[in-house]
Amino acid sequence: MWKEDGVIEPVLSGAAQKVSDSEVRKIVLSYLVHNCFKETAETFIACSGMKRTADCSVDIDKRKPIYNHVLEGNVLKAVELTNLLAVDLLPTNKDVHFELLTLHFVELVRAKDCAGALELAQKELRDFSEQEHYREKLQDCMALLAYEEPETSPMFSLLSMDHRQSVADALNCAILAHANLPSYTSMERLLQHTTVVRQYLNQELGKDGPPVFTLKAYLKG
């Protein structure tokens, strides 16, 4: 049964288990390490009294510059550092490689280097156009060249910080997966699990079950 205080009573099997403070701290730390918040992670460890089981700063020190270069639109430097860290990552991860190349294209357009953007399209992006999976985004990128002020075009989102952030996150996840580390944080997996469980309970219990979980609604509450 779903109760007003948000606790699920044992309608399936077994009673709900309380999450310990130690487990919560581990979830928070995994988020900080995943997203390269080195100083914050170190402060969190010190303030929470957690034991440092391993020095994670080396991993962060290698990933953070790559992440920041993408956020700054310096794609070539990010690619260079990625190739030094994981030499076979981009050749084997076509989706991430495509995202980096198209971001570089966009940054060239932003800098009014249309000749450079066209050269990149001819040398690096032409092969992607043969696959439908990439074609639509390629067409949107190429359409930017038709506008004197691409920031005001219908494809303006390609020049947004959100787009850079999305590419940076995708590359970061790929680097972690390449190193056989979790590509998603415990917090993300927990939210995914919560969403699925609440959806299942809502379908099974109807009006006696909890509402479908959405992060936006939860944060407002």
TrEMBL record:
Location of the CTLH domain: 59-116
Pfam families: CTLH
Name of this protein: CTLH domain-containing protein
Organism, scientific name: Sphagnum troendelagicum
Species classification: Eukaryota, Viridiplantae, Streptophyta, Embryophyta, Bryophyta
